[in-house]
Amino acid sequence: MPQLSAEDKGKIIGMHASGMSNGHIAQVLGISKPTVARWIKRNDEQQNCTRQHGSGRKRKTDARFDRAVCRMVLANRFACASDILKVIPHVGVSKYTIYRRIREGTDFNNYWAAKKPFINERNRQRRVAWCELMRPTPPHEWMNVLWSDESPFVLRYCRKKRVWRTHNERYSPQCTVGTVKHDEKIMVWGCFCGYGVGRLYLVEGILEQNQYIRILEEQMLRRSIMSEIGDLRAKQSCFEYSKMDGMHWIETYFEDW
Question: How confident is the model at residue 248 (pLDDT cuts 50, 70, 90)?
Answer without folding.
Answer: very low
